[in-house]
Amino acid sequence: MIRLSHQDMEGAQVLMKDAASLAPFEEGVEYSSPARGPWNIVHIGTLVPESHQIFMCAQSCLRGVVLTAAEMNAMDRFSTIVIQERNILRGDMEELMIEGVTDILNKLPYRPRAVEVFNSCIHDFIGCDLDFVFGRLRQRFPDVDFTDCYMTPILRKTKFAPDAKMRQQLYSFLKPVPAEEKTVNVIGNLIGFTEPCELVSMIREGGWKLRDICACRTYDAYQKMASSVINIVTNPGALSAGQVLEKRLGQRLLYLPLTYDYDQIDQALETAAETMGLSLPDLALLRRRAEASLAEAADCLEGMPVALDFNATTRPLGLARLLLSHGIRVTTVYGDSFIPAEEEDFQWLKVHAPELKLRATVHGKMAAMPRNEAREYGGRLLAVGQKAAYFSGTGYFVNMLEGSGLYGYEGIIGLARWMQESSRQEQDVPSIIQVKGWGCCG
What we know:
The chain is α/β, with parallel strands linked by helices and 442 residues long. The protein has helices spanning 41-45, 59-71, 85-90, 93-107, 121-126, 130-140, 162-169, 198-205, 219-223, 239-249, 262-276, 283-301, 316-324, 343-352, 386-392, 408-424, 429-433; strands at 13-15, 51-58, 78-83, 114-120, 145-151, 183-187, 209-212, 230-233, 252-255, 306-309, 330-334, 357-359, 382-384, 396-398.
């Protein structure tokens, strides 16, 4: 039982030495913090250029996605169909979808190249025939590409959460075409690689063309991704997207996950070089540069405590391990659970950082807990990630989401530089973290 009246961290915090697993907190009543930078399905869907989104669900469920579209000035790419009780009782859900989408497309001032139709959990509950619906829509609008997308919160705690499904459906419009030699896609990232990046340099210097949905400005440019022979996936949430494309289009999947472990970085770069016939950079030199950058950051911070969160990177425990092993004082990691790939880092931290605090972000108690961790250190605490900044109450923070394109040794060097810069100047945290879907332009 979660007792919200108890003003303590019991149940919402555990020391690393006492953490029993990668999911250390009890599930129950959940709190949603105002750190709103992480993207949702609306933001992700806008990555398909010249597309239009149509959400179909109950009016109360539409409120959140409508506000998202309005906040990002994307209402011209967004429409809704309201499901009412009579539609369920009459059994006319398929007709409502077909005629609703038809009415929207006929009234739009432009004809979108692609339409993302978002059905909701009610369609699953009543057994709506989506194959029939999309078949009819494709007959009526042969010049428009349609795909099924899902706003289904009932899947949130499953192995195939809406976020992963949305990243997969981003590429469902791609049509089989002849393969183009020496072309490679980056699949599933919301932000393109931040350069310099040794992986990007290797690819380009090897004469390969690199494509990324984040850089596509037209639907035709997006469709060219179908001709690439290899898909690189760095985000574990996009692994299923790469697997589906490998099966559907025959594009080879190259899984090179984001990591902060030097040996794993070397392995990823060596795999890319071997697969694509690329020349490796001087890995020893890159490692020395990363070491020097971390040492410089440690000197700059001068013992300043650091808090991390799981929205800043898919590998927060790995990042904590890297920083701690280079003299940077990580005190807290905010995260409700951690991916299996972090098991080795989890065990390392239990031995080498037993007093490290793990704190939940959605646990019900987090709504009532004072956000004053930074005050314990005289206000001088550096947060990496929006949730860490919000819960700690600091003004010093690195605004980073899902790694923000930082990858490999150059990514570590870039992060060390960002940490130094952010430790010198306070920011207006509330005005930054209240922006929904940070970096999404719609």
